Amino acid sequence: MPLANGFLAPDQFAGEYFFNLSAAYCPSCTLVQLVHQPERGRMFNDRYPFFTATSLRMQDHFAQLAGEMMAALPADPFIVEIGSNDGTLLRHAAAAGHRHLGIEPSESVASAARGRGVNTWCRFFDAPLAREIVAGHGRADLIIAANALSHIADVHSMAGGIALLLAPDGTCVVEDPYWGDIVAGTAFDQIYDEHASYFSLSSISHLFRQHDLDIVDAVPQDVHGGSMRYIIRHSGTHPPCSRVDQLATRELSSDLHRPSTFEAFRDRVASAGRRLLDLLREHRAAGRRVVGYGATSKSTTTINFFGITPDLIGFISDTTPAKQGLFTPGMHIPVRPHAEFASHYPDRALLFLWNHAAEVRGRERAFADAGGRWIVYVPDVREL
Predict the structure, then answer these.
(1) In the CATH scheme, what is the code of domain 287-383?
(2) At what angle do helices 155-165 and 201-209 cross, to 10 degrees?
(3) Confidence of residue 3 (pLDDT cuts 50, 70, 90)
(4) pTM of this prediction?
(5) SS3 376
(6) Where are the extended beta strands (E) located within the chain?
(7) Residues 31-257, CATH architecture
(8) DSSP 8-state class, residue 321
């Protein structure tokens, strides 16, 4: 598979990087993780094209998260965000005048955050960096990592760094795609190079316990196709709430970590691929025009794993300027501005942004009014 965000120009096709994308399950710690992950500098660099602020849904979500977390802070708090991207979340701390620091390894988005007044270091988070932050700024009253910890391959350096950085009565808030939702929704396209780990309550609890940190709350979030918000504190400082026990019981009763569950997931993914390809070929045979909508990281997995070629979808519409004019990783489908989608609506649009379906369909009513229909493939293949 190619890099999920490795959008490229034609003169880069010949030297495109590929790696073995395969996920494995550890029966001891129950973590689902990639067997091989590309070197982190290949994925996160000054060409990284994902900007959180392009989604109004995520802007609202992070504004709410920041408001909730900052309401419970002590006087003169210090807030650190791991994987702060373009500062969409941390800008609320900056606006409130709180001491803050964003840790973001991709200069493309880190510079955008600085432009918004967010104090940002372009670094990879690990235990040595945590020591450096503590030496220069003190320990953090609040650590936030939203869609970030799953990207860090060295999970013990990451967890150990959080333990070092977190103040004795501090709070760490982690949000990441939840493995239980990925399985339940057959959301296979969450598996790509940047996602090194796929956490369940069982696996993330096992990890943080080894660093004297406890999961004291677990709250489902309706973002990114199903995420979980974990509240983490130093061991023994706060008892876990009832939601933690309830989620642990649900994971056991649903057989989330049984081999048969993984096998059934695999079979559903293969079936979805066959049905999606059959549908796209049917539209091509009937002379219907199909384009993609949203050149996402997830779309790279879908396109390449299923073998969706440029003759099946003519281009992918995307609003991110950094992706426009380039081609998708692997299959080399052109990425074009949204204006090309709106100026001449296709008969069908393959919605790679399925996790933002409500937001997309709300702003694209004219497409439906013109007779267009959406093709989605999670949790199953259908037209809307």
Answers:
(1) 3.40.50.720
(2) 60
(3) very high
(4) 0.93
(5) strand
(6) 23-25, 32-34, 78-82, 99-103, 120-121, 140-146, 166-177, 197-198, 213-221, 227-234, 290-293, 316-317, 335-336, 348-351, 373-376, 382-383
(7) 3-Layer(aba) Sandwich (3.40)
(8) T
